[in-house]
Structure formats: C-alpha cells, structure tokens
Amino acid sequence: MKKIAFFPGSFDPFTKGHADIVERGLSLFDEIIIGIGTNTNKKRYFEIDVIEREIKGAFANDPRIKIVHYDDLTASVAKKYGAQFILRGLRNTTDFEYENTISQVNRQLAKDLGTVFLITAPELAPISSTIVRELHKFGADITPYIPYKIE
Ligand code: ADP
Q: In DSSP terms, which residues pair with 67 in a beta bridge?
C-alpha cells in the first residue's frame, strides 16, 4: 500500500525548515501532501494563493509532493486525501508540548491516523514563520529563510 503523509500547517510563510521536513519525509513516505490550513480566526500575513503557488513552484519537479489548502479539521482532511500519517516537525520542547496534545486529539478523531515527527536540522531550528514575517514587515531580506523568491 502506498504510504501517504499529510503535512499540515499555516505556512505563513513556508520556510526552509518546512521544506527540510518535506524532503526528509520523502525517505519515509511515497507521497506527501502539504496542506495549507486556512484558519478563519487567524488573519494571514502572506496571501494563501501566493504561498500555495510558491510551494508548488519549489516542488514542481517532484510528483510525490502535492499541495492543497483546506478549512476543516486536519484529521478529516488527511483521511479525505487517503493519508495514513500526519507529518510534523519538532524544533524544541515548546513544539513538543503543543504537538503532543494535537497528535493525541487527532488519534481520537481518526483511530488509524498516526503522527510522525521529524526533529529539525540544527541549522534550521531557529527559523520560524513568525520571525520571517517580522523580518519582512520591517523590510529585511527573507530570502535566506525561504525556498523560493517572494516580493
Ligand atoms: P502551525 O500554525 O500549524 O503550527 P506552522 O506553519 O507554524 O503551522 O508549522 C507547521 C509544522 O512545521 C509544525 O509541525 C512546525 O513545528 C514545523 N516547523 C516550523 N518551523 C520549522 C523549522 N524551522 N524546522 C522544522 N519544522 C518546522
């Protein structure tokens, strides 16, 4: 059976840290679906269409990677796309506390949906979407942190 992982996130923006999780995830899974969550309570900084287009461009050469956006429960969407696993990255213990709870809730929502965590590469651990947004807001160059170019 094809092993499919759903990699959910806000990706506001998608960073080199996220890209690294996807690339390393490909040694474990046959297909990875990157799901951009459109959380209606959270106002985005980067437009979803722009991020979706740029992620598609960054992975255009790899048919094992698909990109979708969604506004629903992550567990339901993962099942809808036939994923048996959710893929997430862990940078530190703060991520762990949060991710641990979320993964347990997802397990309750969908019994056969496991979460696989990959520990961040040390050189990418300081990168967060929050910091990249902040740098962009004040005019700093964000190209070292993202795997594509953005206006
Ligand atoms: P969310 O809003 O759902 O937390 P994010 O877009 O911030 O989504 O992150 C999505 C996933 O990527 C999370 O599992 C997060 O821990 C992970 N992640 C974020 N930054 C990095 C990084 N620099 N290296 C590895 N994983 C990361």
A: 34
- The reply to whether 23 falls in a domain is yes
Ligand 1 is surrounded, with C-beta below 6 A, by 9-11, 15, 17-18, 21, 88-89, 91, 95, 120, 124-125, 127-129
**Domain residue limits at 94:** 4-137
At 40, the pLDDT band (50, 70, 90 cuts) reads: low
Closest by CA position to 7, among listed 29, 16, 27: 29
> What tokens does 65 get?
């990677």
Amino acid at 24: R
pTM: 0.94
Which is nearest to 148 in space by CA: 64, 37, 33, 52? 52
